[in-house]
Inverse folding.
């Protein structure tokens, strides 16, 4: 068993090493599930086989020593050298390969449960959600807000709150489901979403915006026009630069994606009818975000959860707190 455990750890290190160096894309949810199953197997083997066997061996040692002392006492020898307590403790001691498998099972199970059904941490890698979320923000995502899903399969088994316009959602990128993206929900199933001349329309109604002055973008080291936008009942800040329009015909080249026939493109922008079971996503940094305008709709089965809290930013502790 020690050789098998060593082989399993070598495979784990090889997988993590290849993932870290970019030789392949890892799947943390699947890895955590496999680790939970494997350590559960070791824990059950320890609980019902190895631990009782060690206890029986230790009891046999004590019984043998007691029998030896009784025989010597019958011969008139009352003082016997030798203390078996050290040997007994050594027999009862858990070997390393069980300590590093069965011993880790409760911890891995707790992490698996928390990450799969309650909250999951993420790190913001890009500026597409500035000014709401900054590069380096460490955020928490509510995994059960939209319903309970089976780990790995991401199959919803219990409904909860519906997705609403204005929600900040983490989802698996439709073109590469191994990557997680974060954007804001602009359109829900059945909506007609229009983005023309850098203005957002939902079902023909212009999303209300109010100027909020300039925002200093530390990454770009420049000031950007900031607005307060309202989607449904929710207000949030966005950045829109009238001097830069990534949807201008000479720059805008949308990808191929499912239900692309639901979208119409012109020199002003685009208009898309959101299909059933899908969502239209936009970044708050409208001129610096590749989102549904470029790669299409997010299917419901790709939803990871609702982002709701910045728990740390090592470069700016003032970032800690909830956000809209």
């Amino acid at each position: 068993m020690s050789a098998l455990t060593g082989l399993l750890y070598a495979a784990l290190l090889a997988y993590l090493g290849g993932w870290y160096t970019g030789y392949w894309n890892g799947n943390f949810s699947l890895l955590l599930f496999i680790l939970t199953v494997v350590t559960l197997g070791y824990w059950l083997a320890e609980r019902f086989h190895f631990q009782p066997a060690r206890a029986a061996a230790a009891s046999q040692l004590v019984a043998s020593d007691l029998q030896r002392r009784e025989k010597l006492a019958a011969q008139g020898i009352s003082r016997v050298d030798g203390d078996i307590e050290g040997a007994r403790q050594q027999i009862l001691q858990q070997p390393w390969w069980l300590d590093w498998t069965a011993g880790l099972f409760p911890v891995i199970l707790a992490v698996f449960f928390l990450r799969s059904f309650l909250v999951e941490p993420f790190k913001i890698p890009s500026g597409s959600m500035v000014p709401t979320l900054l590069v380096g923000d460490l955020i928490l995502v509510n995994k059960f807000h939209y319903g309970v899903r089976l780990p790995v399969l991401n199959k919803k088994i219990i409904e909860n709150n519906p997705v609403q316009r204005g929600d900040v959602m983490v989802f698996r990128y439709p073109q590469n489901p191994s990557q997680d993206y974060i954007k804001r929900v602009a359109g829900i199933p059945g909506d007609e979403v229009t983005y023309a001349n850098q203005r957002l329309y939902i079902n023909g109604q212009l999303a209300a915006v109010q100027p909020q002055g300039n925002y200093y973008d530390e990454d770009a080291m420049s000031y950007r026009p900031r607005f307060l936008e309202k989607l449904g009942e929710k207000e949030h800040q966005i950045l829109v630069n009238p001097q830069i329009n990534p949807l201008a015909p000479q720059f805008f080249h949308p990808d191929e994606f499912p239900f692309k026939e639901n979208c119409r493109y012109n020199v002003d922008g685009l208009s898309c009818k959101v299909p059933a079971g899908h969502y239209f996503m936009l970044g708050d940094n409208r001129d610096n975000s590749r989102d549904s305008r470029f790669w299409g709709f997010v299917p419901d089965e790709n939803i990871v959860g609702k982002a709701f809290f910045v728990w740390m930013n090592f470069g700016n502790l003032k970032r800690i707190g909830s956000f809209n």
In short: The chain has two domains: 2-112, 124-322. The chain has a mean pLDDT of 92. The first helix runs from residue 2 to 21.
